[in-house]
Design goal:
Strand order of the largest sheet: 1-2
Order of helices and strands: HHHHHEHHHHHHHHHHHHHHHEH
Structural class: mainly alpha
Helix content: 55-70%
Number of helices: 21
Largest sheet: 2 strands, antiparallel
Radius of gyration: 24 Å
Number of domains: 2
Length: 507
């Protein structure tokens, strides 16, 4: 790479931060919040935009760092940014930087520093690239099978086993089946995102036209499943996985899919909130009834949408939902004063990651979200989960040491995955699976409790490794490329005709 490229990226970084500073200053001068967090916002934006200096592509070594710090700004900076033009009731802090803001800035900087350190060490070492990939037929058959099994298990679990979001509904559902059946359902549900990824990978690498409708259908079905099960994350899963796959394989942002995601956040997310408040909680309509008359449930949700988003007890908007600043502030301000440190208690389930419940019936299971709610007296309900974020949970356990050491480990893990599974240096299904599962669990799941996220991530990596050992038999150099060499009578570059696709599937 020429010396002009880093200088150009540095210029872009400096210009972007200058523009952000001017926008923030103009918003404040136009009558924003009385105590704006301008210094905090400027420092946080400078930190979160720093990957631009080193970014070597949307699927390169620094891609995970860029995605993480972009999400970090959304989680911890977006609410203050909007408060400049729409200030909340009550005054802010008079301090230049609050303790919470210092924790957030230090945590993000540690991730950035450790990620770059791992990249530097990893780049200096001799690496053996992955040279084997799955065959086209294996990707299709395994992908469809895993998606179908996972979808059925997810539907049956949230409609007939765990029929509600309360603790009682969860306990009753789990007790209705034996341990082996419950374990099988949990394992089957873990297959679903892997199946979606396999199908999305096949669609973008081999370009069969018929897979477009299948991918779109899968994404729409996920929205329906999430609606019925009152799980917004499940509803967004299909779209997120498709967008991530396109970005990582083609090193570009899919504008159409991104537009659909924005439409979802603006118009579909509020309907989900209204459904949970009106159909599930207020009317107590069973999910089996919703399945039988989905149109009626949608009609009730639409009718209740305005009411749910008005008044003192209104539901959170999408931007309020993704903001984690409030929960981290609560944890930092009260931990060690009115709420004791956890000293690693909420992290203990990670130790039993690979021990099945049938072997260890009393294996630790800490409902961290509920524990946060009870310990910090957020609500009187036992059925409310408060997301602490990984940052907040690390502080709750060990204070500043937890932030520095814990975020160092997170930065190191992301850096190792970003280098070892660098898609810019070799595109294989194993690399895509590991990278996207890491984005889904460790980055998108940063808002949740650590043990819940890392247990699923570690088990997923083991599953991906087993699949690689079984199905990775095709040398990458012999694989049918996404862009075929242009020759007489061939399909257009970048797309395989359907007849060729079926020939390769059946051969």
């Amino acid at each position: 790479m020429s010396t002009a490229a880093p200088l150009q990226r540095l210029t872009i970084y400096a210009g972007l931060n200058l523009a952000f500073f001017l926008v923030v200053g103009f918003a404040y001068a136009s009558g924003g919040a009385q105590d704006p967090r301008i210094l905090y916002l400027v420092l946080l934006f400078a930190l979160c935009s720093a990957p631009l200096i080193d970014l070597d592509g949307l699927n390169g070594r620094y891609a995970l760092l860029g995605i993480f710090l972009f999400s970090y700004f959304v989680m911890f900076g977006l609410s203050d940014l909007f408060a400049l033009v729409n200030p909340p009731n009550g005054g802010g802090s008079a301090a230049v930087l609050t303790a919470t803001e210092a924790v957030i800035l230090v945590g993000g900087f540690v991730v950035y520093l450790c990620y770059r350190l791992v990249v530097a060490v990893h780049s200096a070492a001799t690496q053996s690239p992955v040279r084997l990939d799955w065959s086209m037929r294996a990707i299709l058959l395994v992908g469809l099978s895993m998606w179908a099994i996972g979808t059925y298990a997810t539907y049956h679990w949230y409609v007939y086993i765990v029929t509600g979001t309360t603790n009682e509904a969860v306990r009753r559902g789990i007790q209705s089946e034996n341990t082996y059946v419950i374990s099988a359902y949990i394992l089957a549900q873990m297959m679903q995102p892997l199946g979606i990824l396999l199908i999305a990978y096949l669609w973008r690498v081999y370009r069969p036209a018929y897979l477009w409708s299948l991918v779109l259908g899968i994404v729409m079905l996920q929205v329906v499943l999430g609606f019925i099960g009152e799980l917004k994350g499940l509803a967004m899963l299909g779209g997120i996985l498709v967008i991530a796959t396109v970005v990582l394989i083609e090193n570009r942002v899919p504008k159409l899919w991104l537009s659909l995601a924005i439409v979802y956040a603006m118009f579909v997310f509020p309907i989900f909130q209204a459904y949970r408040a009106e159909v599930s909680h207020n009317r107590g309509i069973a999910r089996t009834t919703v399945v039988a008359d989905l149109g009626r449930a949608l009609e009730l949700s639409l009718a209740a949408e305005h009411r749910v988003y008005s008044g003192r007890e209104r539901a959170q908007t999408f931007l309020e939902r993704v903001s984690l600043l409030g929960s981290v502030q609560m944890i930092v301000e009260k931990t060690g004063i009115s709420v004791p440190y956890q000293h690693g208690y909420t992290l203990t389930p990670i130790l039993a990651t690979f021990v099945p419940k049938v072997v260890w019936s009393d294996k630790p299971d800490v409902p961290t979200g509920q524990l946060v709610n009870r310990s910090f007296h957020v609500t009187d309900s036992d059925d409310v989960f408060i997301s602490p974020s990984h940052l907040g949970e690390l502080y709750w356990n060990f204070g500043w040491w937890g932030v520095v050491l814990g975020m160092s480990i997170i930065g190191g893990i992301l850096g190792l995955i970003g280098c070892a599974f660098n898609l810019a240096h070799g595109r294989t299904i194993t690399r895509v699976l590991v990278t996207v599962v890491t984005i889904k669990q460790l980055i998108a799941g940063f808002e949740s409790s650590i043990a819940t996220i890392y247990v699923v991530w570690l088990r997923s990596l083991v599953g991906i490794g087993i699949l690689h050992l079984i199905f990775a038999r095709l040398p990458v150099t012999n694989r049918l490329p996404a862009r075929r060499r242009d020759s007489g009578g061939s399909a257009p570059a970048g797309r395989d005709d359907t007849a060729t696709v079926f020939h390769n599937l059946l051969s």
